[in-house]
Amino acid sequence: MSANTDGEMELEYGLDDRPPWPKSILLGLQHVAVMIVPATAVAYIVADGIGLAPGDTAYIVQMILLFSGLATVVQAYTVGPVGARLPLVMGTSFTFVGAITTIGADFGLAAVFGAILVSGFAVEGLIGWQFDRVKPFFPPLVTGLVVVIIGLYLIPVGMEYSAGGVGAEDFGALHNIGLAALVLAVAVGLNLFTRGIARLLSILAAIVVGYAAAVALGLVDFSPVGEAAWVAVPSPTRYGFEFEPIAIVTFAFLFLVSAMETVGDMSGVTAAEGRSPSEEEVRGGLFTDGIVSSLGSIFATFPVTTFSQNVGIVSFTGVMSRHVVAVSGVILGVLGLSPKVGAVVTTIPSAVFGGAVLLMVGMVAASGVRLIILHTELDRRNMVIVAVSLGLGLGIATTPEALAGLPSAARTFFGEPVILTALSALVLNTFVPGEQSPLFDDASAQPGLESPTVGPNDD
């Protein structure tokens, strides 16, 4: 789409436009197709890390779809002060994968859902009310580093899946590597050499191809699908609640990070109209994140937040209609009420998911790099912040035993690469003078930290 001089795009459908029903349904399905794979992949990764039974995995997938749909509809239409009235598709984020897996393995799922219940609304609700005061502490340098580490530390998970999954008897077998390579090749090929729907649905199409190949090789067990019911209602407090202080603190910090991602996605959507999100839109969007996440924890779902992939669809298609996104939310909700859908997802071999996960987490890291480069001058100050933050985050991701001497609670909190990277970047960016520091607005406030001046004869 071409842009006007004031920055506003030429939209096919504006925020309050209602496309004809047939077109609305197709456009809504496109949003669902783009987000359903990464959203359910989060559940799949966590289930494997904790060691959940297929039935439990299918149920969690079901709840993720249901509450993603509910949150999407609320964002589009609002319920009182909750909702942004923007075309924001919601789903479970990779931000929480590490913490859910670690805390779930150490304390059980009851501690995970107890922490989400308490910290979801408490943190994002507070940020929503006091957003203007919090925003300066999370400039693109900090949020970009968080996005980078989320992608980087999950790359080994993608490799493990590509080899067949940790503990698999055929780990590293040729057929596993072949399936992962097939999925990766199809996804990359469609993304780079096609346009339109084929490019937008490249990951989904690649998984379908890989799944078909796995079926042909006799590697798929369909018994969970046959045993699953067609329709089922959610089961509240399925795993119970426990309130571990360290789990609550960990999730509270991650919800803070997630809030900044959500604000970024809202900014990406409203940029199509040549504007930034209003204070009311930001508040309503963050309330949706927190309230629906806390509500979902009662029914055993993981935190929901905005999906950046779907923000890209709005820009790519020029369809900003919130009614189209509401249709996608209804579709997700309907899928979430059918255990058959969750059961089908659990039949996908780990190697097939591995090829897709590798690409998705790599793209997450790449988007973080892009965020930093576009909005941050990489002078000496900022390069040091990048080096320290990524060094600590990747260091703990690759060598978690380095914290063996710390108390258990400290190991849980500082053992999360996202938290260590975000905390390092936040502290350094806040207290070291520079343009993105909330305490200093002039990089020259401290000698030696200013940006180097490049003369006409310099290389």
Automatic annotation (TrEMBL):
Segments traversing the membrane: 25-47, 59-79, 86-103, 109-129, 141-159, 171-193, 200-219, 239-257, 324-345, 351-373, 385-406, 412-432
Keywords: Cell membrane, Membrane, Transmembrane, Transmembrane helix, Transport
PANTHER family assigned to the protein according to its UniProt record, in alphabetical order: PURINE PERMEASE C1399.01C-RELATED, URIC ACID TRANSPORTER UACT
Annotated compartments: Cell membrane
Family: Belongs to the nucleobase:cation symporter-2 (NCS2) (TC 2.A.40) family.
InterPro entries membership: NCS2, UacT-like, Xan_ur_permease
Name of the protein this chain belongs to: Uracil permease
Topological category with respect to the lipid bilayer: Multi-pass membrane protein
Keyword Ribonucleoprotein included in the entry's annotation: no
Listed GO CC annotations: plasma membrane
Keyword Transmembrane helix: yes
Pfam families given in the database record: Xan_ur_permease
Molecular function via GO: xanthine transmembrane transporter activity
The organism's place on the tree of life at top rank: Archaea
Primary residence: membrane
